[in-house]
User: Fold this.
Amino acid sequence: MRISFSFVLASFVFGTIGSAVDYKQDILPIMKERCWECHANEKKVKGNLAFDDFDEVRDYQIGKYNIIRPGNAAESNFVERLLLEPGETDFMPRKADPLAKKEIELIQKWIDSGAIIDREKMTEDEAERAKEMSGDSASEGSPEYLIWINKKGKGIEARFLSVADGKVKLLLKNGKQYDVPLTSLSGASMEQAKKLSGD
Assistant:
């Protein structure tokens, strides 16, 4: 039986499913609506951060030790500030309402997928990063693409990469990676994950 991945993924993985997130296409509209007054050359630049200067964002804001850490939204200072309580000193956007949960999740997804500015015109560094984030260079886990079933009976074909913090990291054939809570898997798929992780 052939599985319809676009339909299955929508109900299998939590959050927004789609193509890899792109700064210009997906994140910039959020920045324009919520951050432009203080962080754009078009208006005003505070904290040396201009979201409309793509080269500046790519070269000086994105990096292993910068405010946007590709592949690691959880440790990106940019995301940390968005998640603070309004009123806290470093909360952003300052003197405005917090970003919507969906907006923050999209920003996190963008960072976790490599923080690429423009997927149609990637630099060499970005192309290498996108390759790493897609799992193309990963050697861990199972090289086989197996069927994974959730508790609702929906299935996807994916390669096992790892288990950590109660989540199984799966790699789809299109290069996308997803962290799926172990508790959302069927008993058989949960056992499959434990076996592959060596537990």
